[in-house]
Amino acid sequence: MATLFSQWRESLQRLGFAMPPQSAATPAPGPGTISPSVQVVASTWARDSHDLFDFEAHHLQTQTFSVSEPAICVRNGTEVRVLGERETLTPGNGEPLLRLVQRDGAFWVDKASSSSNSKKLWLVVRDFSGCGHRVAEGDVMKLGRFKFRVRQLAANACDGTQPELKLDDSGVVCCTNNAGDDLTTTMCRICLLEGPGEDDPLITPCQCKGTIEYVHLGCLRHWIRGRLNLSDASGGSYFYRPLACELCKAVYPTYIHTGTDRLREPLVEVPLTQPPFIVLENMVRDSQQHAARGLHVISLTDKVLKLGRGHESDVRIADVSISRCHATIRFQRGHFILEDNNSKFGTLVAMKKPRIVEPSKSISIQMGRTVLSISAQPGVGSCTIAPLQQLPGVPTSAQDERALRLSLLTRGSSRGDAGAGQAGGGTAD
Ligand SMILES: [Zn+2]
Ligand SMILES: [Zn+2]
Predict the structure, then answer these.
(1) For residues 367 and 374, what is the distance between their CA atoms, to the nearest angstrom?
(2) Does residue 23 fall inside a structural domain?
(3) Which pLDDT score is estimated for 290?
(4) Could you tell me if 99 and 226 lie in one domain?
(5) Cα of 164 to ligand 2 centre, how many Å?
(6) How far is the CA of 325 from the centre of ligand 1 (A)?
(7) What is the CA(213)–ligand 2 centre distance, in A?
(8) Residue 211 vs residues 166, 189, 250: alpha-carbon distances, Å
């Protein structure tokens, strides 16, 4: 039995399921240890605006379901329904949100389908039980309608790690005079002097040809210094964005190989960043936002990183969907912890793989304007509860009341429902 069980665990892990730590005391799944049902509390914001959910709204459509067999949650307008796995999904059923699957005697939350246009599942950071989200490289987080990708985390101060400044389309590395040409009569397009200087090679950083092909590295750096206002913030924090040639529009390379030993160094003279530091990439939605592309390099020595609309923010986003102090990232005991600061439109982390519904922890997942809070109901026999039963709006047990509190009280606020009337979906505080 034990061997079969571990083989099964391994095959699940190969399929990408995260497994809870297996202790020797964990018995094989049996009637006494499984969670036979989960409670799903669905809250849907009445407005449909930029896939946002207003965590301060008073008027939400809230529905509670008890689910005891594999199911799929769908939404039609503001109404969420839970369908059995075998019910056929037709467009009339509504938009699929997520699936609840049963593995290992427990429920797991998964995408509605494996296709890439399946709705993205976002974990709601404010509903994490007390501890925030432990950030990992590659995480995608969403604040209001802005997304960031975690490009790099450096915790250790002793190995000399510096931020990796590569953006997706600027991976070109420029080499100094790799053809070995004689450039003594070649002119620099900025200072108009001929030939390379001492420790100042002539380079061809873009697509320009002819008399404007070459430029001194020092002259280009001087020009970049004037364009990029790299702050002198403590710990060596800055915002890096790739610059393009004003003539041919080609993006300048991020790194350059210099000297006989071909050392790789950033083209832009960036300050030394003190670990622990984090590198966040602005993920731009469309070409109009192109100027906002770039990397936030932020050192967390002696401070907490603040993301928000306020002037004191380390990552400042001037947008109505962002609260003044929206979220924070701090470095604690070797980990980077993301926390939401009761923001109006929430702090979310993209769910990368199926997640288990653990007995004492509920998970909240946002899909557009709906948040589903899912919690296990241990000890309730599956025979006593009808599958896919929708509970009435009034709490019927301590369990239901707790879930309703979670979905209603934590979302309510005295600041009023800014959802009404405004085109932008209300302004965050
Ligand atoms: Zn020059
Ligand atoms: Zn050019």
Answers:
(1) 13
(2) no
(3) 58
(4) no
(5) 24
(6) 45
(7) 7
(8) 29, 7, 17
DSSP E strand boundaries for 68-145: 71-76, 79-84, 95-103, 106-111, 122-124, 133-134, 140-143
Are residues 181 and 206 located together in one domain of the fold?
yes
Cα(319)–Cα(143) distance, rounded to whole angstroms? 10
Whether 49 and 97 share a structural domain: yes
331: CA distance to ligand 2 center in Å?
41
Distance, CA 222 to ligand 1 centroid (Å)? 10
What is the 64 CA–ligand 2 centroid distance (Å)? 60
Q: In this predicted structure, what is the pLDDT of residue 232? A: 67
d(CA 217, ligand 2 centre) in Å: 14
User: How remote is the CA of residue 249 from the centroid of ligand 2, in Å?
Assistant: 6
The pTM of this model reads: 0.77
Shared domain for 213 and 282, answered yes or no, is no
Whose atoms come closest to the Cα of 220: which ligand? Answer: 1
State the average pLDDT for the chain: 80
In-domain check, residue 113: yes
For residue 184, the CA-to-ligand 1 centroid distance in Å is 13
Residue 406 pLDDT level (bands cut at 50, 70, 90): low
Whether the per-residue pLDDT at 391 is higher than 80: the answer is: no
The pLDDT tens digits for 238-273 are: 999 888 899 999 888 888 887 667 778 888 888 899
CATH number at residue 225: 3.30.40.10
The CA distance from 346 to 369, in Å, is: 11
- The CA 204 to ligand 1 mean position distance, Å, reads 12
Q: How far is the CA of 288 from the centre of ligand 2 (A)?
A: 22
Tokens for 109, please give them: 């939350």
pLDDT of residue 286: 62
